[in-house]
Design goal:
The chain is of the alpha/beta class. It folds into 2 domains: about 250 residues, 2-enoyl-CoA Hydratase, Chain A, domain 1 (Alpha-Beta Complex); about 55 residues, no CATH class. It is built from 16 helices and 11 strands. It is globular and about 95 Å long.
Length: about 400
């Protein structure tokens, strides 16, 4: 599988694969079914709406179809189908006047990306991007959308490149037909790597062309000036023209005090404050929001309920699934995370995985013990009587010396 993803995420995925820390087939199937149920709802998984603004979330590792393995590292997993369905919903809904893409992703697979870019390019409604992380495939999506606003100086962008990973083992030997030597190149040789690299270069050219088109620059500039595969923070990305603006709340407030008609940096919403509003700060609480903007209040409330339900359900599902009959600590982890307000972070999920693996190890050891006990019980009929070591010494002394102990 070809990836357009940040390298450290790829390294972590490979490490877990090589150590066997991967979800079971049942866990993967259950996750896919859960995603399918969510996708069948009225609103796509990545779509929310507040007033006349639609929000499309591009979060975590991007894959063609739901992937529990990607979820472990991506927090969470977004599929290209999710994004395309959200785009279709935003375009067809007459109440939606503007679309904002929220991007927080290290990238994902090549498969599905270009279809998603085509769907974005076909959008007719005004759109923009707010991004805390837009690496590799996720950056291509952000570039296709249009104006990119970084959430702050900590936001990161880049990792523009294609990578393919191969696990080389001497136990497997591939032999191709005479006239198809490049069908399965030997990547342990320079010749084999050259074959693979030529293919990756073709994908890379398509990838860079898409980014260049979205940013309105040449492909050569993307190749030479957009990091050459490196990841950079928002400040450097802005200087290179990879993003358009960076959120800076203190600067925006200072500029608005001097000029109430200043445009908030990176936003498409202009502040045209009157003198009265400038002198008097207007405060908003939940009751006022509900009374003045009922649609916004309802959307925010429902979104919060859905996110909290998903967070709690996720912890309980993983905790109960990993706990089993014997205590493994998984349920304690789940309850603690729920009380602390933690999401399904990589650290928490690693604790679930460890608990599940410990439970499986204990079950396996118990099964071996039961099997061995059953075998011994059948060999000699009745269970042998336990003999005291002192009695054995006394008997041996009597037999050799003829003297009773």
């Amino acid at each position: 599988m070809l990836w357009l993803i940040k390298q450290d995420v790829m390294d972590e995925m490979q490490r877990c694969i090589s150590s066997g820390q991967v979800p079971s087939a049942k866990e993967c199937t259950d996750y896919v079914l859960k995603c399918q149920v969510e996708a069948s709802a009225d609103s796509p998984r990545s779509f929310t709406q507040a007033g006349d603004v639609a929000e499309i979330r591009v979060e975590g590792v991007l894959t063609p179809k739901p992937s529990l393995f990607a979820l472990i590292f991506g927090e969470p997993n977004t599929t290209y189908d999710d994004v395309q369905a959200a785009i279709a919903k935003a375009e067809s809904d007459k109440t939606v006047k503007r679309v904002v893409f929220h991007v927080a992703s290290p990238g994902g697979t090549v498969d599905g990306l270009f279809e998603t870019l085509a769907a974005i390019q076909g959008m007719r409604k005004p759109r923009s991007v707010v991004a805390s992380q837009a690496d590799s495939a996720a950056y291509a999506i952000a570039a296709a959308v249009g104006k990119i606003r970084a959430t702050g100086a900590h936001a990161e962008f880049g990792s523009i490149g294609v990578v393919a990973s191969y696990f080389v083992t001497p136990e497997v030997v591939d032999v191709t037909s005479t006239n198809a030597p490049n069908k399965c190149p030997d990547v342990s040789t320079e010749e084999g790597k050259a074959v693979v690299r030529a293919y990756l270069d073709e994908i890379h050219d398509l990838f860079v062309d898409a980014i260049a088109s979205g940013r309105g620059v040449s492909a050569s500039r993307v190749n030479q000036e957009f990091g050459r595969g490196a990841v950079m923070l928002a400040g450097a990305a802005k200087r290179l023209g990879m993003v358009d603006s960076i959120n800076n709340p203190s600067r925006v407030r200072a500029e608005n005090e001097v000029n109430p008609e200043v445009e908030t940096e990176g936003s498409e919403i202009k502040v045209a404050a009157s003198a009265a509003v400038e002198k008097k700060e207007r405060k908003m609480d939940a009751d006022k929001l509900k009374a003045e903007y009922p649609d916004v209040y309802k959307a925010v409330f429902e979104s919060g309920v859905a996110q909290e339900r998903d967070r709690v359900t996720g912890h309980l599902n993983l905790g109960l699934q990993c706990e089993g009959i014997e205590p493994s600590g998984a349920l304690k982890t789940a309850v603690g995370a729920i009380n602390d307000g933690c999401g399904l972070t990589m650290k928490i999920q690693s604790e679930y995985i460890a608990a599940g693996m410990n439970r499986k190890d204990r079950a396996s050891a118990q099964a071996d013990s039961d099997s061995a006990g059953g075998t011994l019980a059948g060999v000699g009929g009745e269970e042998p009587e336990t003999v005291d070591i002192g009695d054995q010494v006394a008997a041996r002394f009597e037999a050799t010396k003829g003297v009773k102990a």
